[in-house]
Specification:
The protein contains three helices and seven strands; from the N terminus they run αββββαβαββ. The chain has helices at residues 19-35, 84-94, 110-122; strands spanning 50-51, 61-66, 72-74, 77-79, 99-104, 127-129, 132-133. The chain has a five-stranded mixed beta sheet, with helices on one face.
């Protein structure tokens, strides 16, 4: 039963328009870019203390993370407590104007943070303690 006035048979589309699909992909890309975090993630989970004010530092930096278990990470690479001063010194030779950023977990021992700061002081580095803003 054909209800069309003319008896012309319509052929299926031979070309598929991809403009709608392209729009969806573009919107998904924009969504994921906007919802992703643009903060540098060092990969080591450290709960740093809270601070009232903050200072941003765009200069070169050497990051030393201290976990609650007493592990040390220099620029993301694990370092033993015996080799800590040697590794910081080697990294400092590659970045002579870098500041030492200490990212100690709030449950870490103060002695571990002071040890890292003493190494930075011996190398005459600028020492910064990383915190999170309230």
């Amino acid at each position: 039963m054909d209800f069309r006035k003319d008896s012309v048979k319509l052929e299926p589309l031979s070309m598929f328009s991809q403009s709608g699909l392209t729009d969806i992909i573009l919107l998904l890309l924009i969504f994921f870019l906007l919802t992703s975090s643009f903060v540098t993630n060092f990969g080591i989970r450290v709960n740093v203390p809270q601070a009232e004010s903050s200072v941003t530092n765009n200069a070169q930096q050497i990051s030393v993370a201290i976990t609650a278990e007493g592990e040390f990470f220099v620029d993301g690479e694990q370092a033993s407590s015996g080799n800590l001063s040697t590794i910081i010194r080697q990294v400092y030779q590659n970045k002579p104007s870098a500041s030492l950023v200490v990212r100690a977990d709030r449950d870490a021992k103060v002695d571990d943070a002071v040890r890292v700061m003493n190494i930075g002081q011996a190398l005459n580095m600028n020492i910064v303690m990383a915190t999170e803003r309230d």
